[in-house]
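Render this sequence as a predicted structure.
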Amino acid sequence: MIQAFVALANSLVDQFDVVDLLDGLTADCAHLLEVDAAGLLLADRRGVLHVVAASSERTRNLELFQLQREQGPCLDCYHTGQAVAVADLREEHGRWPRFATAAVDAGFVAVHALPMRLRDSVLGTLGLFSARVGVLSDDDLNLGQALAHVASVALVHQRAAADRGAVNEQLQAALVSRVVLEQAKGFLAQRGGLDTDEAFRRLRRYARDHNARLTHVARSVVSRELPAQRVLDYSAARHRRVAEP
């Protein structure tokens, strides 16, 4: 838990990769809270929500489904600015018929949606998904909301808090970076015969081991400046080194 807050706090004073930060947030939530997965939606300058981070491809697909069908707890959370807690989605078919069915089919039966806000502006939502029936404890909810709050501040920077135009620019940059990252993941997955979760792990490890920004590495892969095979070969070599006695 301390490491999660340290990473977010450091982003307030250091240069940081926004996509890497938000992906780390979803991974931290899945690890620290009593949930199995997390996803994060951010709104663009027109107020349209996009998936910018998820702890797994399954979660990302469910968040995309929610946006495409225009129904679900995360959308309600964004529009009202209030947290949404659902202990058992199987009892919510009347409320979100398509989303509830899709979530249960994906293995999730409980969901919590927490607002990401900056003052009076709702920037997006943090979705927490569980394979077990029940609501989160107050401690877990408070921790999840605290992580979302700190990430919101890190995302737009305190110096941009009073300038809505600057906030929009920050959010738009995050959305564009996410598109590039998805392209790089797909390219690596196809080239290496991997699933997209594994492709992302290899891309992120390459970036961290080379002290490079994740979006910069992703952009280099997409532009062919960094050969995809180099990233794949690096991952294989690193795995061999770790496995050696």
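Summary. The two ends are 31 Å apart (CA to CA). Residues 2-158 form a domain with the Beta-Lactamase fold (CATH 3.30.450.40).
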